[in-house]
Specification:
mainly alpha, 18 helices, globular, binds zinc ion, Acyl-CoA desaturase, membrane, oxidoreductase activity, acting on paired donors, with oxidation of a pair of donors resulting in the reduction of molecular oxygen to two molecules of water, transmembrane, transmembrane helix
Length: 372
């Protein structure tokens, strides 16, 4: 395996080639946010004030869901400080953008900026990384899931994308709340509770039927869109001891108009190289990365990435492979032989595999990764 480098190492090589303006915040991104906010308010008023055919409500739900997701993408950008720099304004605007997904800015910054970005694809420290076979052996629920046939599991995991972002954010709240300074803990709670108070109030104002179309269905759609991207961000890549975005991240490609609607969220490798840069400039970063490290960079159309996710298990084996422990089928990851147009596996004895991986100490797993 090629040497791994930190994101700072890459950033240092690319930065001199970029114009200075790319490192400045881009407040004009907020116009897009305002447009989505107006669409959401108009959608709520239409559902709330008019008696329409359920099919029309469903269409509005779809527009609301895509707007919720897009606001989340903007919220992500805002809370990286790439839209405005003033901390109070950044958090205020981030709270509005993440309001439909009910995530508070303080929790998000801790979970995403300070944990996921710093420890990307680290098996223990990345809150968004998927489990290793070693961890599976200790978790009953995961163990049970991996005893289901692959098709059932793949269908279940794709269906669960409609809930996963909301469930994961609740898990993150439970995991991180204790880590906040007691002085700040109250505001983290307030930032969680306020959006939910708003949504529950809306339930009483609109009544349950209209609320399902105005909030619940859009929330499921937004979860599916957001998770459609997030699940492809790192899950076909290996886990890495060194946080190397070219090894552990994937950029997906979508039609240009989708990139416009989603604030270039598809450029995930570029985002991990320059999280403090507005995503407006990621196409430029991509050009340089592809020039400088063409054999390290991973990109593919989002549809292909999702098909590859369907076909492969989500359990790491030796750090750079994926294993289906039920069948003993081992798949490669990106950069280690995974060919998305022809996904194949090799068979291992599952009991031996489990035993071997448990015997490997964590440092040894790291060594395996570095040596290969
Ligand atoms: Zn990421
Ligand atoms: Zn980020």
């Amino acid at each position: 395996m090629k040497d791994l480098h930190s994101f700072a190492w890459y950033a240092k090589q690319i930065s001199p080639k970029l114009p200075k303006k790319v490192f400045k915040p881009v407040p004009s991104r907020l116009w897009g946010g305002l447009a989505y906010l107006l669409i959401v308010v108009a959608g709520f008023l239409t559902i709330g004030l008019f008696q329409l055919h359920p099919f029309i409500y469903l269409l509005i739900s779809f527009v609301l869901g895509t707007s919720f997701a897009a606001m989340g993408f903007l919220g992500h950008e805002i809370l990286h400080g790439t839209v405005v720099r003033k901390p109070w304004l950044r958090d205020f605007l981030g709270a509005i953008a993440f309001w439909p997904l009910s995530i508070g800015p303080k929790l998000w910054r801790k979970w995403h900026n300070l944990s996921h970005h710093v420890n990307t694809q680290h098996e223990e420290h990345d809150p968004d990384a998927w489990p290793t076979l070693e961890r599976l052996s200790k978790t009953k629920l995961l163990n049970w899931i991996y005893h289901l046939p692959h098709g059932v599991r793949a269908f279940g995991s794709f269906a669960s994308l409609t809930l996963m972002f909301t469930l994961h954010s609740a898990r993150m709240f439970a995991a991180y709340i204790k880590e906040f300074n007691p002085k700040h803990r109250r505001s983290v709670w307030v930032q969680l509770i306020l959006p939910w108070v708003f949504w529950i109030t809306l339930l009483f104002i609109m009544g349950p039927m209209k609320w399902v179309f105005a909030f619940l269905i859009p929330l499921l759609i937004a979860n599916a869109i957001v998770m459609g991207y997030i699940s492809t961000n790192h899950r076909l890549n290996p886990i890495t001891e060194i946080n190397d975005p070219l090894a552990n991240s994937l950029t997906v490609t979508v039609p240009k108009w989708v990139d416009v609607l989603h604030f270039n969220f598809s450029y995930h490798t570029e985002h991990h190289l320059f999280p403090g840069m507005s995503s407006k400039y990621y196409p430029l970063v991509k050009k340089h990365v592809k020039n400088m490290w063409p054999d390290r960079y991973h990109e593919m159309p989002i549809g292909k990435a999702l098909v590859a996710l369907w076909k492969t298990p989500r359990l790491y084996y030796d750090g750079n492979q994926l294993i289906d422990p039920r069948e003993g089928h081992v798949y490669s990851t990106l950069g280690h032989g995974l060919d998305i147009s022809n996904i194949t596996f090799r068979k291992v004895n599952k009991d031996d595999a489990l035993e071997r991986i448990i015997k490997l100490s964590k440092s040894k797993v790291g060594q395996v990764l570095k040596d290969k």
